Structure formats: C-alpha cells, structure tokens
Amino acid sequence: MFRRITPSSDDINSRHPAILGLRNILKTACSNDITTLTVPVLLMHEMSEEMTVAWCTKRAELVFKCVKGFMIEMASWGGSELKNLQFLVPKGISEDVFGTLAMMLPSIFRVSNPLVFKVSSTPHTPKNGK
To answer: Which InterPro entries does the UniProt record give (predicted)?
Structure first.
C-alpha cells in the first residue's frame, strides 16, 4: 500500500509535489511487479463545499493526463506492466460530477475495449479480465 500525504491546495499543476509523488508511486509499482493500483482521481478522499464541478473536472483532467504520461514514460523503463489501474472518486461525489469524470476517460485514455462505469461503495478489482 502506498499513501501520499499532501496538504490540500487549489493550486496544483503537473510539477506539484502531489503529482510528482504519484509519479514515484507508479515508478515504484512498475519496478516491483505491482500490477494493480488504485488512484484517488481528485487526490482527496472526501468531498467538500469548495469542490465545484469545474474544480473537480480540472483536477481530474490533470490527474488523468499526468497518469497517462507517467504510464507512457514507465513503459520505456521495463519492469512489470500495470494491468489494472482504478480511479477512485471521493465519498459524497454527485452523480453529475461522476458522469463528467467518467466521460473524460475515453478521450484521455484511448481504449479499444468498452469501458463500464458503475457506482460502488467498495473498490472493485477485476478478476480474469471481467
């Protein structure tokens, strides 16, 4: 289990310590044969009043794009491939925000297989490709 502790900040960019920490986690996972990783998409575990739809969309887009870039970078290093990457949304997220974030994934991560989005109170780990 990796845990990244960062003070909450509205000003976050691709060089922010939280994002660089996420890069280090992905690098460590690939270097140590960890094939499943769950990333909090907003880098927060709970929703707050300050987290507007625009804020959530901007933060998620940054995380999605940085993770994609890090995965491309990691592929050139060798080691194990990340087979399951799960993005976790915070408790209390609205259905509208969830839908917005879910629609971002296929445009950022080009996929050949259909994506299935569902609401669950517990993380779901795919078994045998299902």
So the answer is: Fy-3 (IPR019311)
**β-bridge partners, 39:** 87
Q: How many CB atoms lie within 10 A of CB 62?
A: 19
Tokens read off for 118? 């569902």
Rounded distance between C-alpha atoms, residue 86 and residue 84, angstroms: 6
Tens-digit pLDDT profile for residues 29-57: 888 888 889 999 999 888 988 889 999 99
DSSP codes joined into one string, 77-102: T-S----EEEEEPPBT--HHHHHHHH
> Long-range contacts for 92-100 (Cβ within 8 Å, ≥24 apart)?
92/46, 92/47, 93/47, 93/56, 94/53, 95/119, 96/53, 97/53, 97/56, 97/57, 100/53, 100/56, 100/57
What own/partner pairs with CB < 8 Å and gap ≥ 24 does 15-23 have? 18/43, 19/62, 19/63, 19/66, 22/63, 22/66, 22/67, 22/70, 23/66, 23/70, 23/73
Amino acid letter, residue 66? C
Mean pLDDT in residue range 83-95: 90
Q: How many residues does the chain have?
A: 130
